[in-house]
Amino acid sequence: MNVLSVAYPLLPVGPDSAGGAEQILFLIDRGLVAAGHHSITIAGKGSQISGELIESAIPAGDITDKARQDTQRAHMECIRRALRSYAIDLIHFHGLDFYCYLPEPAVPILATLHLPVSFYPPNIFEDANVILNCVSQTQANSVPSARRPPVVFNGVDTEQYQDGAGEKSFLLVLTRICPEKGVHVALQVAHRLELRLVLAGPVHPFRDHQIYFAERVQPLLDENRQYVGPVDLARKAALLAGARCVLIPSLVAETSSLVAMEAISSGTPVIAFRSGALPEVVEHGETGFIVDTEDQMVQAVQHTDEISPQTCRSRAALRFDARRMVNDYVELYETLVG
């Protein structure tokens, strides 16, 4: 098959991507190439792709409405160019704003919903020209349409993550830093327990993200609660292997959680709020704990030694391996192509 994947216009795709959608696209593209398919990807400048890359410009500095619209128009032109140049069998969209640069429906169009359903305009669920798919059953159950979307569960490269040796003395938060991720809650937990915490991830150049970091996160940082910025794959794997546990105090209905999958693959328990699909990923009492409040998160941290690293790793290999995800997408592509 000739598969055209279209990334979110404002972030590059690669093994070190901070965004979940970008990580998933990277793994799908790599898996398609390994399986002998022709994979073409439209993504921002600086993306790292196994197949063929069509670069679309990413604006520098603050992302204004005009800059966003300019990149969407550039994406649309890249899609048109790809359709003229290749015998595309299917287009697979991954961006939150995919409906802003949809082409005429000359080939099957698939869009993966990587974010909560409420983040998308209601009219997309009635567009008969676009097949939507979800990444968890919880997300699929929230779709406001009589049409039940297919579900392809996310996966990670489980072989990249190893169980760490030695004392695991710090709490870890690994996420893009924005209001809905609840990073301040994790920092408050660390202060209450007087434990070291490492916070890793990007602060994207969106105004509300930067305000949140300055007003809610930075005041809670000190010598024992440190922000280390964005991390590459090697540093991320090392942090996950060395952490006592990973905290996910998300304040929105998560569609999935790659960080939780990566932590469990590393033999590291996850303590997460009962938000969206997180209970589908974290098996309470087996690979971590699902909690409802900050107080419960504080209590759960004190029970992390009850979680077996071996159990975590075996469950991750069974449930989260990216090869399973790629195979599921290929089966869906073949069904849509007919």
SSE series:
EHEEHEEEHEHEHEHEHEHEHHH
- Report strand %: 15-25%
> What is the name of the CATH class of the largest domain?
Alpha Beta
Radius of gyration, taken over Cα atoms and rounded to an integer in Å: 20 Å
What would CATH call the homologous superfamily of the largest domain? Glycogen Phosphorylase B
Shape: globular
Q: Specify the CATH architecture of the largest domain.
A: 3-Layer(aba) Sandwich
Biggest sheet character: 6 strands, parallel
What would the average pLDDT be, to the nearest integer? 94
Q: Which segments are poorly predicted (pLDDT under 50) over 5 or more consecutive residues?
A: none
Distinct helical segment count = 11
Helix-residue proportion:
25-40%
Strand order of the largest sheet: 3-2-1-4-5-6
Question: Explain this structure to me?
Answer:
This protein has 2 domains: 2-155 and 321-337, Rossmann fold, CATH 3.40.50; 158-319, Rossmann fold (3-Layer(aba) Sandwich). The longest helix is centred in the N-terminal third of the chain and has 21 residues, at 65-85. The chain has 11 helices and 12 strands. 36% of the residues lie in helices and 17% in strands. Strand 10, helix 7 (258-265) and strand 11 (270-273) form a beta-alpha-beta unit. The protein has 338 residues and is α/β, with parallel strands linked by helices.
